[in-house]
Design brief:
about 300 residues, alpha/beta, Rossmann fold, 6-stranded mixed β-sheet, two-stranded antiparallel ribbon, 9 helices, about 35% helix, hydrolase, PG/BPGM_mutase_AS, Fructose-2,6-bisphosphatase, His_Pase_superF_clade-1
């Protein structure tokens, strides 16, 4: 997928439209808990650093808040980097029943190249000089651009949308030639998806789906300086709830493809992304701290 592409599933050119009910993904986007490198202001990237005591508390507090809300999740995804895995486990330990976590390399943090393992204040060029000064002989870590990060996370979203459409069975044959009605079980459906990832990748995900201007206008948005450019601040263990409506794309029904076969080739596209409830909220941790002080 190109860096500017909107997530969608491939399909042939439209000729005949299938009727479709509304299907939405409600993504609970979470950044991992605080790590030792976060405290030390060291670039981590795709390297790793263990959670601090505070990071563990943050993840537990979020898990308790989600458990108290009685939300049920269709799926749980996490970056496969250890700090995200640890955060995911602490969160789901508070839930019953516990769903399996699907660990995905495509949800990893952006690879930061020569800056990984060095202070955040260093630029890319300064990092190369610092590595030489320190005598670091290890190969330079992988470097990714924001476009490359978006490409892999949008591929992940494509996969999730496809699975949601297939497992929900939300394909309705074209009833234009008859008067049949939807069954009582028909209607809109929302699938809750828990996603544990990293600030850099989540920032790209939100900016591409919502647009930078839309984020800047949100009353809860906070920004920090990233190489001289304002960037959305995504604190450790913060929760953003994003609703994505999936719209059916029209599909071609050729001479060798009947209506039943066509349903299996239904394509989906993220038609709208709307922030709901929260943007980068850390209310769960503030509540835990307040409760501790009251005892």
């Amino acid at each position: 997928m190109s860096s500017d592409a909107v997530p969608h599933l491939s399909t042939s050119q439209p000729q005949k439209q299938q009727t479709q009910r509304r299907l939405s993904l409600r993504l609970y986007l979470i950044r991992h808990g605080e790590t030792e490198s976060n405290v030390q202001k060291i670039v981590i990237g795709q390297s790793d650093s263990p959670l601090t005591v505070k990071g563990v508390e943050q993840a537990k507090a979020l898990g308790e808040q989600l458990a108290e809300s009685n939300r049920s999740f269709w799926r749980i995804y996490s970056s496969d980097l250890p700090r995200a895995q640890h955060t995911a486990q602490l969160i789901i330990d508070k839930h019953s029943p516990i769903l399996p976590v699907r660990f995905k390399p495509r949800l990893r943090e952006l690879a930061r190249g020569a800056r990984e393992g060095l202070p955040k204040v260093l630029s890319e060029m300064e990092a190369f000089s610092e590595r030489e000064r320190l005598g670091i002989m290890d190969p330079i870590p992988l470097f990714e651009t924001p476009g490359e990060g978006w490409s892999r996370v949008s591929d992940w979203l494509d996969e999730v949308m496809e699975d949601a459409a297939q497992e929900s069975g939300y394909v309705v044959p074209d009833n234009s030639d008859n008067d049949s009605k939807d069954t009582p079980n028909d209607g809109d459906k929302v699938l809750n998806v828990l996603v544990i990832s990293h600030s850099g990748l989540l920032r790209i995900f939100l900016e591409r789906l919502l647009g930078t201007q839309r984020l800047r206008q949100h009353p809860d948005a906070r920004f920090e300086n990233k190489n001289g450019v304002p960037a959305l601040s995504i604190p450790n263990s913060s929760l953003t709830i994003l609703n994505i409506d999936l719209s059916p794309r029209e599909i071609e029904i050729s001479n060798h493809l009947d209506d039943n076969d066509a349903k299996n080739h239904q394509s989906w596209v993220a038609s709208d992304a709307v922030l709901i409830e929260q943007l980068t909220s850390t209310e769960h941790y503030s509540r835990m701290q307040a409760a501790a002080l009251s005892h």
